[in-house]
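Practice problem: predict the structure.
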Amino acid sequence: MGLNLKEAFALAEILAPASQETLASLASCASLKRVKRGEHIFHERDAVKTLYIVVDGMAAIYKLGDGGERKVIFVYGAGKALNEAVLNGLPASESCEALRGATLLCFPVERMLAAMSSDFALSMAVMDSMSIKIRRLYRQIKNTVGSLRCDKKIAAKLWKLSRDYGVPSPEGTEIAFDLSVTYLADMLGAQRESVSRQLRLLAEEGLVLFRAGRFIIPDREALQSYFKSP
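Answer:
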């Protein structure tokens, strides 16, 4: 998608409440960056001096474990800020890669901080964005340490992805990006073999389909009932 800055600004959620004066100031330092699928936007421990907002495509935030295993924490689509945490001046605490081709709206960190200092509504929008991420992390911790079975974790994750990134298809709701079993396992912090085995069971129940690298949910309500059942 060939976006210009005006279109990109309109898509960036944290900029929605900013004043026209603030937007004009940020426009003078903003830039657009196109990244290819699989390309890294930043790595953990990088000294990142840019705030990135996805305005087209998708990106994933992940951490590497002690053994080098990947745990995908968040997947973000258009409108979402990727790395508000760098506003505190510390190195990046996570890595970020394009899950598919993406366009990023970029701001120098110091200019974003200056804009926030004079625009309370913008500051609140950034805080709200970070608050939502913190709440999601709390839920992830609960699911990680809780007793939820692997099959229900898979069902819950696919249901949420179909809610956030689903598009209608003849067979139900298709998650609108390529998602391998390995990457789904990374999202869940589980072994690929376990996830593959449980996916086969969910498929046998008619709850999940897998077509050419895409997951399809035939009935989202049935899938929700499955992972919410005792």
